[in-house]
Design a protein that fits this description.
By secondary structure, this protein is α+β, with helices and mostly antiparallel strands. It contains 16 helices and 34 strands. It folds into three domains: 197 residues, no CATH class; 82 residues, no CATH class; 430 residues, TolB, C-terminal domain (Neuraminidase). β32 and β33 form a beta hairpin. α4 packs across α8. The longest helix is centred in the first third of the chain and has 12 residues.
């Protein structure tokens, strides 16, 4: 049975005119300029009379006149459209295949087509049919379409089921808000029965009617999921699933749905056979699943073939992360999912860690050969040996010797969302407030980075009471706070500024890239070694919004990162920094320079006692599991930066995104200290108890702690909580976390 690759976006070619010309009353799904998510029209039955006119005139290469250039196509639907336009399609053989005399396993063998060879497709047949679905030979009668079945379903057998196709998408992208741990509006989408039961507002799926289904309308509009709009191919899967009646599992397609391709008689090696072949010449058929569709109108170019054939080292990082990293001192349960968890052992004496020499190096969990991280790239904490993250963990109850104390619950919960935290040395806690990121928030606030409804309040963490004071109101989105030398430094949508102790807000620089809908902007902020660091997010996704693997594989990495991930803004998709004294003098974004490149949406920043900068990066959403999509913990070491990198972007380290999605690893990349599974969405990060603590907003949400296990950076969840957005360390060494629904908690070590 033929199954289309779920990560290809269908390209609809303008072949309606051709079918009308031949008298076939088939309605197409629309041209390339129309939305790919518009409802698919139901085709009318195809007339079965013969067309006796001559085929289109051929050019010198046997190609339809005027169409001599090959165009890349992706799948069998595209190949059908190509043939309907009167042009041949070409495919690359993926395996050795027998060429048979009819579109059925009962046909006799005429010869063989070798793996890696090109074949010219001249017709597409269903298993056992004597008439083609489409053919270049206009004298042939075409098979009749069923008006009650969608056009695509008849061209390529591609049934969709919740268990096989929809649930994996929702587990990666929706579980944070509508999964086992949290069910906003009482809606759970990660279980079939729960999803079909609907939410507090009623049914969200109306089987057979996508337009009446709330689930589809919010996905089609891009308002859900909150962590990022679904990729086009995933949107289509959801729509097709609902349109097909929202089945729990894929319907079993009959064997007759398999497709066969009629290929050119010169594209295989003939063998002697004893079968009887019709007088009008042999029909030459191969199974469609043994090919990869390549081009339309002409044979693919060498560059197009290079894209089809694996030319780079396969990206085996995910497999390595899931199976190869099995430290001896980690429990078997934790080792089963080390990429989404963090093994660490509590070291309560942070001063000892600070006074010690640089910690031993830790390598990223990746296959060799990869460049090692710079000296001192590790952490000293040993693993806790906790079990892997599970939705059965106690909610907001810490594990591994930590305890949790809630603060300001009556003042903040369900009224605000906390986006950033920072302490002054005297114990004052500065809190950035926003609209709640859970429940029914005001979309004007949530999706508009500049909406003037944010604020900063200050709270005396030593008092234990519920009193706080507002020191900044009517602000754009605030995602970064840090205290340094008597001033609170602030990263907010499009700019950075500061509030002198007891003073008012002063803008220091503006002009950073911002995309309010994607929550991308300048995010975290930190001061270290006389530099002010800002994690500058991209305004494009780099996956759903642009080409990942450029045609020219030698395109400079900095060009890719600027043009594809940051929308051309040289202060986007970067870790940038400015000398603090220079910034305070210039008060311009021109004071900033690139510190490191190759990020998708860097979020939290933490400076450790060794002068190193730790950065969380939110990867692209809805990326195939075999790729690392950019979710990771990165380490930037200013001391390892070569002198020529000061003010010279091309000499700064590159962390891999978006080129990593192509799977073509480069030796000059700086590896992540801790690669994470897709859609984990790490957020806040801080240094405490001799190691790094960070939060995950998406997959397996909660608070994590990194450790060193046999030279391997691993992490283990010490607290199940959602959505944790802000993480910071208090003067007494305790960790404070803030959530998107206004939860404020103190997490301390040494508790039973």
């Amino acid at each position: 049975m033929i199954k289309s690759h779920p990560f290809f976006t269908r390209v609809r070619l303008p072949w309606r005119e051709m079918l009308i010309w031949v008298g076939l009353l088939l309605v197409t799904a629309g041209c390339a300029t129309q939305s790919p998510f518009a409802p698919l029209p139901t085709p009318t039955p195809v007339a079965t009379q013969l067309f006796l006119g001559p085929p289109p005139p051929l050019g010198p290469e046997g190609v339809g006149a005027g169409l001599g250039e090959p165009r890349s196509i992706a799948d069998m639907v595209d190949a059908f459209a190509c043939l309907a336009d009167g042009q041949p399609a070409y495919a690359l053989m993926q395996n050795n295949a027998s060429v048979l005399s009819m579109p059925s396993a009962d046909g006799c063998t005429l010869g063989n087509a070798a793996s890696g060879s090109l074949v010219r497709i001249e017709g597409i047949y269903r298993e056992g049919d004597s008439a083609p679905l489409v053919t270049l030979d206009r004298r042939q009668k075409l098979a009749t379409f069923d008006a009650e079945i969608s056009f695509e379903a008849q061209i390529i057998a591609d049934p969709v089921g919740y268990v096989e196709d929809i649930n994996p998408i929702f587990e990666r992208t929706c579980a944070s808000c509508h999964g086992s741990a949290v069910q906003t509006l009482n809606l759970k989408v990660t279980d079939y029965d729960a999803l079909m039961a609907g939410s507090l507002r009623g049914d969200v799926v109306i089987p057979g009617d996508p337009q009446a289904s709330k689930l589809w309308t919010v996905i089609a509009a891009g308002t859900m999921p909150l962590i990022g709009e679904l990729a086009p191919e995933h949107k289509r899967l959801v729509r097709d699933w609902i349109a097909a009646g929202a089945p729990r599992t894929r319907p079993v397609a009959p064997e007759t749905d398999s497709l066969w391709l009629q290929i050119s008689a010169v594209d295989f090696t003939a063998t002697n056979n004893n079968c009887t072949v019709a007088d009008n010449g042999p029909h030459t058929f191969i199974r469609a699943e043994l090919t990869k569709i390549a081009s339309c109108a002409a044979a693919p170019t060498a560059d197009q073939l290079a894209q089809l054939r694996p030319s780079a080292r396969p990206n085996t990082q995910i497999a390595s992360l899931q199976s190869d990293v099995t430290p001896a001192d980690v429990s078997s349960a934790a080792a089963a999912d080390v990429t989404a968890s963090a093994e660490s052992e509590i070291e309560t004496d942070a001063a000892e860690a600070t006074a010690s020499a640089a910690p031993p190096p830790v390598q990223a969990a990746a296959p060799a050969p990869r460049p090692a991280a710079g000296s001192g790239a590790g952490v000293q904490a040993a693993p806790l040996g906790l079990a892997a993250p599970s939705d059965s963990d106690a909610w907001m109850i810490a594990r591994g010797g930590f305890c949790v104390e809630p603060r300001l619950q009556s003042k903040l919960e369900r009224t605000y969302g906390i986006t950033s935290l920072a302490f002054a040395p005297d114990g004052r806690l500065f809190i950035a407030l926003d609209s709640p990121s859970t429940g029914d928030g005001d979309p004007n606030i949530l999706f508009d980075a500049f909406h003037p409804s944010r604020s900063i309040v200050v709270y005396n963490s030593n008092s234990g009471d519920d009193f706080f004071e507002q020191i900044l109101g009517e602000s754009g989105r605030i995602t970064g706070l840090t205290w340094y030398n008597g001033s609170l430094y602030i990263s907010r949508a499009g700019e950075v500024g500061r509030i002198l102790d007891g003073g008012s807000y002063e803008r220091l620089a503006s002009g950073f890239a911002v995309n309010g809908r994607l929550f991308h902007a300048n995010n975290g902020i930190a001061v270290s070694g006389g530099w002010l660091y800002v994690s500058a997010g991209g305004v494009l996704d780099g996956y759903s919004d642009g080409i990942i693997n450029p045609a020219d594989g030698n395109l400079p990495a900095e060009t890719i990162a600027v043009n594809m991930a940051s929308g051309g803004n040289v202060h986007g998709s970067r870790l940038v920094r400015a000398r603090l004294d220079q910034l305070l003098t210039q008060r311009s974004i021109g004071a900033f320079q690139t510190a490191a490149r190759g990020f998708r949406n860097p979020y939290g920043i933490a400076a450790d006692p060794f002068g190193r900068i730790w950065v969380t990066d939110n990867g692209a959403t809805n990326v195939a599991e075999e790729y690392l999509a950019g979710d990771k913990i990165n380490l930037f070491e200013p001391a390892a930066l070569p002198p020529e990198a000061i003010g010279n972007e091309s000499a700064t380290p590159f962390y891999g995104f978006p080129i990593a999605l192509s799977g073509a690893w480069k030796d000059w990349w700086t590896p992540a200290v801790l690669p994470l599974l897709n859609t984990t969405a790490p957020t806040g990060i801080t240094w405490a108890y001799g190691t790094v603590f960070f939060a995950q907003y998406g997959r397996n949400p909660g608070l994590y702690r990194m450790s060193n296990s046999g030279g391997q950076a691993i992490a283990e969840r010490v607290l199940l909580g959602w959505p944790i957005q802000a993480v910071t360390t208090a003067p007494d060494g305790a960790i404070w976390i803030g959530t998107g629904n206004g939860g404020l908690y103190r997490v301390a070590a040494g508790c039973n």
